[in-house]
Amino acid sequence: MEELSSEVPQEGGIIKKLITGKLGLVDTFWGAYFLGGILFNVVIKALQDVNALFIFNMIYAVYILVVCIGVWKAASLYQGKVYWAVLAKITAAISIANSLVMLFALPMTIMGI
């Protein structure tokens, strides 16, 4: 006979919660965006190989795009003071623009286009 599980089904993994904004604005902004960004930048500053630097910058740009989608959605769901949500959305919009430039302009510059 099969035993019943007392575990509550999860809404998805941490990445799904991050992208949907259900991780919360504080955790998404300060954890994924801010601390994650610091970790990426520490590694980028330590890299010496141009190819590794290029690849890691591309990974970082994609990471920031995904995290900024989560920040935007978390800010939309935020129930606290409205100015925190507005500031988070402004930061996300600027970072998205920066990441898109990095994803398109950096490869074009390297290829000499």
Structure notes:
The protein is mainly α and 113 residues long. It has helices at residues 14-20, 25-46, 50-77, 82-111. The longest helix has 30 residues, at 82-111. The termini are far apart.
Q: Helices and strands: which structural class?
A: mainly alpha
What is the helix fraction of residues, given as a range?
over 70%
Percentage beta strand: under 5%
Largest beta-sheet details: none
Following the backbone from N to C, one meets helices and strands in this order, namely HHHH
Q: What overall geometry do the principal axes of the alpha carbons give?
A: elongated
Q: How confident is the prediction overall: mean pLDDT?
A: 89
Number of helices: 4
Number of strands: 0
Query: What gap, in angstroms, lies between the N and C termini?
Result: 67 Å
Radius of gyration: 18 Å
Question: Regions with pLDDT < 50 over 5+ consecutive residues?
Answer: none
Features:
mainly alpha; 113 residues
Give a nutshell description of this structure.
The chain has 113 residues and is an all-alpha fold. The protein is built from four helices and no strands. The model has no long low-confidence stretch (mean pLDDT 89).
